Amino acid sequence: MGQDQTKQQIEKGLHLYQSNQTEKALRVWMRVLEKSADPAGRFRVLGCLITAHAEMGRYKDMLKFAVVQIDTARELEDPDYLTESYLNLARSNEKLCEFQKTISYCKTCLNMQGTTVSLQLNGQVSLSMGNAFLGLSIFQKALECFEKALRYAHNNDDKMLECRVCCSLGNFYTQIKDYEKALFFPCKAAELVNDYGKGWSLKYRAMSQYHMAVAYRKLGRLVDAMDCCEESMKIALQHGDRPLQAVCLLCFADIHRSRKDVQTAFPRYDSSMSIMTEIGNRLGLVQVLLGMTKCWMIQKELNKALESIEKAQELAEGLGNKLGLLKLHCLCERIYRTKGQQRELRDHVVKFHECVEEMELYCGMCGESIGEKNNQLQALPCSHFFHLKCLQTNGTRGCPNCRRLSVKPGYV
To answer: What are the extents of the domains in the chain?
Structure first.
């Protein structure tokens, strides 16, 4: 298959894919991969296969094609191709919740001396790295990466990237419980879709609606949460987007749990868990098990709650997800207090505070915990964040956290 024929077949596959004929598109692209002698064409078709498998939630296949693409990029001896292939390798590992590997491949991308094309990819690299740091609950570094990605998006007038970063920032602020910002950023993403997204994939609309649903639920606006989640789920079902279906089912379950409708919540948690297991989203599984634990606690089935916690803890430890562990210790604390088991209670109180210290989840001004309840937060240029009211009351001539870190042990 020559260069022109390769190009025609790739375009044919794209047309089929955009018409929701995914399996036909995959067959066309696989034929190109088998028969084309054009390395640049093979590189491009591998990119199409990587994107398609990512959207279907076939993350192991995505990783397999990303590895092949790296070999093709080396054959082409072009730093731009190599940067793009390492980015796809980073994204594949991000989807499989291999966060340390993601960070390592992102750093490889940023260290490559490519041309303008590579520089334009730096925003996407920063976004992927931010998502990985967030998966590890390293909040300061996650925020630094998201803000860097946002700067790249603005400098390159890349509205799609800006939309994706806004969704990740929504997730970031949901996790540290500034629900006003958790809603603001996905609303901003939805605005970008409305203003610029006429030719975009519907996944951008679905993504922004899902993150809005999560924030609305946290704010107790359950009707708004249900409306947004239904719209996101509708698009996910139309496009066979399994990863989005999984998180929407989780959100539906959480909404029903918020209404104390445990009987409706459980089947949705089960369906979400089934898809999360199928696609390999271990971080999603931790969130499902947390929701199920809270349902068992509502029903006062404390032993079943502890069984869910045990499964979630094993997953969270394997991932290095410190926030998940903190939440699990918090739930254990409540369960053992109810059971009157003082020794176990004390163990989990100690572990909870160790997690808070490790993640720096406290305000450097008032010393109170961050992420315990809904609070307006403000980040300084160094990406350390504080209660907004503390900054407004005390002002700052610099970051108290940075000052503390710069003092050598034994100096004071």
So the answer is: 362-411
